[in-house]
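Subject: Interface between my chains keeps coming out wrong

I've been trying for a while to get a sensible model of this assembly. When I model each chain on its own everything looks fine, but I need the whole thing in one frame so I can look at the contacts. Pasting all components below, labels as-is. Any help appreciated, I'm running out of ideas.
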Amino acid sequence: MSALRLFYAFVIRDLISSWRRTAITVTGIALGVCVFLAISLANETALGEFKETVDLVSGKANLEIRPSAGNYIDQSLLATLAPLGREGVVYTPLLQANAIAVGGDNPLVQVNGIDTLAPAEFVQTKTENSDKEESSASKDARLSTSGQPPEKTASGSQNGANADGKSNTSNSLIEFGTALIGEKLAEDLKLEKGSELALSVNDKIVKLDVIGVLKSKGLGKSFNGQVVVVDLVTAQDLFELPGKITQVELIVPEAIYADVQEHLSKNITQAVTVDTPSARARTVEKMTRSFQYNLTALAFIALIVGMFLIYNTMTISIVRRREEIGILRTLGANKWKIATLFLSEALFFGIAGSLLGVAAGVMLSDSALTAIAGTIEHFYFSHPLGSSNIDPMTLLKAFGIGVALTIIASIPPIFEATSVAPAEAARKGSYESRIVHSTRGLLVAGVIVYLLGGLATFAKPIGGFPFFGYAAAFAAIIGTAFITPFALNLAFTAVNKNRPIKSLLGVEGTISLRALGGAPGRTAVAVASLMVGISMMISLAIMISSFRSTVVAWVEQTLKADLYIQSQSRAEGNREGKIDSKTAEIIRDVPGVAAVDGFVEHRTMVNGEPVLVGAGDFDVLKKYGRLRLVNGQKGSALIAAMGADDCVISETFSVRRGISIGDIIEIPTLHGLLPLKVAGVYYDYSSDLGYIIIDRKQYLKNFSDTKLTSIAVFLAPNADAEVVRKDCLARLKGNSLVLIRNNQELRTEAMRVFDRTFSVTYALHTIAIAVALLSVMNALLALTHESRREFAILRYLGATRAQLRKVVLSQAVILGACGSIAGICVGYVLSLLLVNVINRQSFGWTIQMMIPWDFILQSSALVIVAALAAGIIPANEAGRTKAAEFIRSE
Amino acid sequence: MAGSDILISLDRVSKCYKAHNIDAVRDVSIDIRAGEFVAIMGPSGCGKSTLLNLIGAIDRPDSGTVVFDGQTVNQLDDEALTRIRGEKIGFVFQSFNLLPTFSVMENIMVPIELNKSKVQSAEKRAKELLQKVGLESRAHFFPSQLSGGEMQRVAIARALIHEPRLLVADEPTGNLDTQNGENILQLIKEFNRDFKLAIIMATHSKEASQTADRLLQMRDGTLVSSESN
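Reply #2:
Try treating it as a single job with all components included. I did that and got this:
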């Protein structure tokens, strides 16, 4: 018989005849691959879109000058660059900031203030009708120009000439107060050439005349098409940043690249970083690393549970066909031939499941992206995330992982199939008797794996990723899986000896229990796979619940101001939206206001890693501050004792960077590096990047940004918060567009953000449970199939069809209950690892453990009900047992 | 022979397995009296087991009538057939068919527990039956710890725990050596005599068939002879 014929006869026919098992296994693998792929695509899209925007905006630029202190550079810096023009360097200034489009569905837009006089190298975009008309608006929007410092023209643009003497080809493409807008933005807002665009910029509403719609390529494609292009001066005017820019893009010939870098570092006196544009993307990558790694790790859960399903399926396949294996071995098939046959079966499952999973993953990727977009935009970077980018390499990777894990999970049963002698293989029940004999060995292996996992918890993270923490979690899962046969044996024996429990179970329950106990291998795998899914659910529930209660307590203790003010733009999703500092002055004079604390923050780099520098009014904090310090000291007392060059840092920053009280850290400022002594470490759960908090006076001395991110308002005793809020809004009307929340509203908002962050986690572990339930159904089908003889005997002995169904349903409930109990125990261990090792190493947060008993009880009951549901098909199959046919075939 | 003595009556019963296109039983008519011991002989595939299934209310005929204890079986649904088996019929098989994960005592008690009968009085009876089959010391053993002969004794005790009126035995000595086979036949005969238990036994063994009161010969699904021993 040729290999192909043998494959068809041995593998394909069996896959078809056992179509339920085939369908369950393929679905399980597909679910695992689907979740992994959807999350991978969402992660990659989020980062990819940011990178794409960087690339589209910087174009051919190979060097970028950006502020290292604060958010802006003074455009006088361009004078320093003038000599470079003669060396063939072209460059362009850019002011890039976010705003909110009034009336849009996806309101966040990126405003690019460009120098409209751009040489060809910086041409990035074309408007929709540029191929047909030659109006000024239809010509290319250019990202810059000159070898000379910009010189303000009547229209607000800058003029100059390239070093090679060629003059720029156009000017005044975009006049002051006019804008080109992205195609997507135009569609969202139903705008066209001649329309008026209203933007919420910081705490103001500004209007621009739309002079054209950019094609969806080049700059017009950046920021997912939600882009507004204005000339530099317009942008400076919009954002009230006269003379400021956010970056300079340079195209430097390769031959003089090093010299230019040297020139820049020697001659630029402002606090800037000179690096490639892609360095910005690397920074964002660093910021989101922990979030994305942990999300990917969560997505892996369904794949791991899927591995148990595959292990189960292959074990069933091999156990069911041991006689055939024995016959084939007797007829001369060697071990490799047998292994190849089963490997080809596993390969079929892997390929079919992974292909389905890839297709489903692509379909689900947009939902996954939506689920994580809010978290990314809130905590890491602002970028509209539309739909997922489907990278063929990612699809291939997910497919490869699906197939590889299927093969890996199949190896132990295949090894088992090939390691037995032909005579033993043909003997019924030999697999289970091997399991019975190896339970003690597996127990020892489980204990060793647990100990190794325990040791792994002491290891440090690698590159900020808690690799060993996850290894410990994996060890807990594998260790428990090894211990499961022994534990089940112990439990079943105890129950069998207990008459009250036996009478409670009834004859059907006792028969199920005995059948499960008689097939310890299969039962253990089904329980273990359910245990994995449930333990993940329980551990995440404990972690999230603990985290939530910790944050609730922190919010209650920390947020003590009566009113909180932020710009309308920030309230609508623009994390860069700020408030004019004059607003704080106006609020301070409102009757009933006792004190006002203006807070400002910006992201900076300390020792190559991103961190937030924040500043508050220490004079106010001395009296009203409620910082919760890690060492238990009173926050206001610490603030009162702090010197001008002292700072307090958040716990995340302290833990992740290994910085303690008394250490000196240096932050980049306009005047160079500012050494700060760490006076205290405080609990903070608002960002995993970490905070360095300094006094506002110190901030104003060192950074040019006078605007505020938010304002906390403390009221006088007996002042009515609602009255003061109305008064504030009335006084700010026409000056500053802000959102004022009272204390309770802010707390509610904080918890809404928290819950949104973890919504994707719930979805992921629900899918893992679904895969585990498929494993239970698979095990029940196998048990039912193998119990046909017993069922037939029972029918002869007077069992009704309903009783047989009850036997299988009892097995489902027993498996569900065992899986739940094991899952809760392991889930608790995993939650300890998540809270104290993985979270600590990834984000640096201290979380107080809180066990959500109500959730655990409800979900366990739900799992048992779901297991019962999974048992319906096998139960019906059992009910259809034809006793006469069985006896005849005997 | 008084009509009221008839426990089972088969009238022109036929059974065809359509999937395999086999006429397993053709036009068989037979009466079995209460307390009668009937043996059926015939070559493999002649329809003995099918006939036993029809008599034992496991299967329904395609045509003809089966009357068990005054009740026409053909018309009964699965529940009713199960009830008849659970209350009035016991089975013994060639390969014993004990539940491997149940102890001897538990195996014997299964029919009682399935039929929700009175467990306490049944336990007493189970012990008596164990004593009768000579296995009282093996009550807590598992099937894997017993010899073939012992397993068949347990199977007989299990078949009789609910005090059936009919024992259906399909090749009960087929898997046993001569000595054990004789012992089992002796035991069956004792139960037949002591409890007025009707027995219908399929067998290949001429010696076994001589234990019965009457011997039926089957060939190709039909009854070819009926003679008293």
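Reply #3:
Confirming on my end. The interface with chain B takes residues 506-507, 510-511, 514-515, 517-518, 789-790, 793-801, 803, 883-884, 887-888, 890 of chain A (CB under 8 Å).
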